[in-house]
């Protein structure tokens, strides 16, 4: 059993037989259940009876399925910033190297390492599993763990450093209160904060 301190956007690996499903499964989920082990993304919801809220993903962007897995069944726990470790880089499919999202990631990789910024979305899943989930149209999703407050001016500078060929990634800032968009925080006095209790409009991220 791994540590219980699992956060939204983290990836967990477990035996497919451990899944707890409360509704009828679509065909693509039923096909996944034939695999001995699955990797899923932790959702932003509370633990219930030691069940971890997770989301399965298929090959298409529309294929997302919410379900649960017992915390004690989790065999491996991967945080988004851990995907920067060199041994995960080989998991990017060779025929995806020319995709813009991969080129964007590789261009800013040193900056991500320096600033404890993790990888989410389809690229994060591909880095973790080696499953080819990245598309030519995929965006770069980043997860920034920011324990200390920063100003709007600093947020704008960060967006500039994260950009590649004028493309700004979707960067979620994670604090003790929840998560919010770096771009929205940089450009608006009030921004949407995602919390376990649900989304709220706020002026304070910490």
TrEMBL record:
- Which keywords belong to this entry? Nucleotidyltransferase, Transferase
Against InterPro entries, the record matches this protein to: Holo-ACP_synthase (IPR017557), MdcG_C (IPR049180), MdcG_N (IPR048903)
Q: Does the keyword Transferase apply?
A: yes
What is the protein's species of origin?
Vagococcus lutrae
Identify the residues that the record assigns to the Phosphoribosyl-dephospho-CoA transferase MdcG N-terminal domain, covering every copy.
7-80
Q: Where is the signal peptide?
A: none
Q: What name does the UniProt record give this protein?
A: Malonate decarboxylase holo-ACP synthase
Q: Per its UniProt entry, which superkingdom is the organism in?
A: Bacteria
**Pfam family membership, one:** MdcG
């Amino acid at each position: 059993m791994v540590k219980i301190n699992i956060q939204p956007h983290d990836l967990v690996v477990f035996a497919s037989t451990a899944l707890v499903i409360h509704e009828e499964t679509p065909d693509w989920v039923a096909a996944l259940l034939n695999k001995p082990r699955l990797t899923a993304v932790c959702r932003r919801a509370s633990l219930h009876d030691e069940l971890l809220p997770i989301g399965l993903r298929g090959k298409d962007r529309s294929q997302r399925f919410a379900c649960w897995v017992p915390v004690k069944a989790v065999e491996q726990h991967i945080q988004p910033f851990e995907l920067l470790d060199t041994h995960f880089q080989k998991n990017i499919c060779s025929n995806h190297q020319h995709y813009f999202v991969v080129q964007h990631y590789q261009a800013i990789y040193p900056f991500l390492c320096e600033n404890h910024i993790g990888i989410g979305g389809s690229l994060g899943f591909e880095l973790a599993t080696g499953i080819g989930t990245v598309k030519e149209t995929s965006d770069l999703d980043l997860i920034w763990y920011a324990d200390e407050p920063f100003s709007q001016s600093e947020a704008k500078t960060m967006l500039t450093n994260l950009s590649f060929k004028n493309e700004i990634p979707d960067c979620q800032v994670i604090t003790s209160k929840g998560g919010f968009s770096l771009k929205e925080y940089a450009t608006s006095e009030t921004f949407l904060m995602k919390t376990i209790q649900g989304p709220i409009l706020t002026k304070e991220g910490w």
